[in-house]
Amino acid sequence: MSGALSSPLWRPENMVHQTIAIRMTNASKASSNNNTMQHPLWMTTTGPAIRWAWALLSALTLAIVGSLSGCSSAPPLSPAVQSVPAGPLPPPITQAKSRWVAVSWNELPAFEVDALHEAWPAWLRSCERPARAWQALCPQVRQLAEASSASRREWVRDKLQPYRVESHQAQTDGLLTAYYEPLLDASRRPQGTFTVPLYSPPAGLTPRKPWFTRQEMDTSAQAKAALRGKELLYLNDPVDAMVLHIQGSGLVRVSEPDGRVRLVRLAFAGTNEQPYRSIGGWLLDQGYTRDASWPGIKAWIARNPSRVQELLWQNPRYVFFREEALPAASAQDLPGPKGAQGVPLTAGRSIAVDPGSIPYGTPVWLASSGPQTSLQRLVLAQDTGTAITGAVRADYYVGSGAEAGELAGRLKQPLRLWVLWPK
């Protein structure tokens, strides 16, 4: 997804993929610039005394040159070049959509400096619903909850083996986008500008059976009758409603009829089973914009306010929600929404992946650098999305609110992944 348009299973992506080409230039050989040395006549003399003297002089010369070269200031080898595996590496592991190739720990960029304690809460949440491969190790993960960073790192090295994630065609480079949880204002009843309803699933909604399209829900008397009484609350902007549909969940400050304001979470509860169509892609196809990110889409809407409904109708897919009560806390202190693994997401430490490439609950080393951010850190595979497909593909959960939304709306950059798997 293009940042904010990235998605878990119910949050389809709204982006144009980019292919990043990498060119490597071979350095010219040093020997190709050296001419054959021309020796003085006495060096070619064939007398035994002269030949002995020349051999001794040559040996001394080589010794001096070798000593000087040993004192030169050549840069040290990179850790990856210096690394020597402690023993033979295990064979590759083949997944449905990827191939894992065992590597030494030195291949993981910045592994020694990441703040592992920041990833541990996400790991503990994955251990609430461990896959079979992790059932034996999760008790140890819990025991390390209060351990030092050195102890955690030593345990990770001792118990796990890093594998580079590749496609079946040995492609190691992929794409990183990001997603977030919107924080919106709403009213329990329609009033003033709060007239855009969000619905719970209507009766008769059947999995894998198409229901009314988004446009029909706005215009068909039959669809409106089916939705009557299913209104959860009302937003004041149809574009915010679309954002919520694409992200799949959101935090909402609801003004109640008695004057109270409550913070609730709207969680995914189903769809109308219509195909997803990218509104950003439609704008690109029509030549209306060159920027299909959320900021770019909103800029187009600001210039064309009378065409908002036309734009939204390009995506026939509609998402229904259920309301979840939350403890009394600020939005920043709340756990994230539940991902496809069934555990709450952790901002900055949870990613959505293709489960055909990386199983849920797997710790993953992520490396990505681009204009928006540079990331080299431990994350947990805890979510997925209809647009998150392929071997080296991830959607990075960045949290909730406007600042997270701004980053999610812009993040789209190269990616490399390594899974950490039990030995």
Lay out the secondary structure.
Elements: H1 48-70, H2 79-82, E1 93-94, E2 99-102, H3 116-126, H4 138-143, H5 149-159, E3 160-166, E4 174-181, E5 183-187, E6 196-199, H6 214-219, H7 221-227, E7 231-235, H8 238-247, E8 250-255, E9 261-271, H9 279-285, H10 294-303, H11 308-313, E10 319-325, E11 350-352, E12 363-369, E13 374-383, E14 393-400, H12 402-410, E15 412-422
Parallel strand pairs: 4-14, 5-8, 11-13
Antiparallel strand pairs: 1-2, 2-3, 3-15, 4-15, 6-7, 8-9, 9-10, 11-14, 12-13, 12-15
Description of the molecule:
A six-stranded mixed beta barrel has the order 4-14-11-13-12-15. It has helices at 48-70, 79-82, 116-126, 138-143, 149-159, 214-219, 221-227, 238-247, 279-285, 294-303, 308-313, 402-410; strands spanning 93-94, 99-102, 160-166, 174-181, 183-187, 196-199, 231-235, 250-255, 261-271, 319-325, 350-352, 363-369, 374-383, 393-400, 412-422. It has 423 residues and is α+β, with helices and mostly antiparallel strands. It is built from twelve helices and 15 strands. 26% of the residues lie in helices and 23% in strands.
Which characteristics define this entry?
disordered N terminus; 423 residues; six-stranded mixed barrel; four-stranded mixed β-sheet; 15 strands; alpha+beta
Order of strands, main sheet, comes to 4-14-11-13-12-15
SS-based structural class?
alpha+beta
Shape verdict: globular
Summarize model confidence as the mean pLDDT: 83
**Radius of gyration (Å):** 29 Å
**Based on DSSP secondary structure assignment, what is the total number of beta strands?**
15
Low-confidence runs: 1-84
How large a portion of the residues is in β-strands, by DSSP E?
Answer: 15-25%
Kindly state the percentage of residues in helix. 25-40%
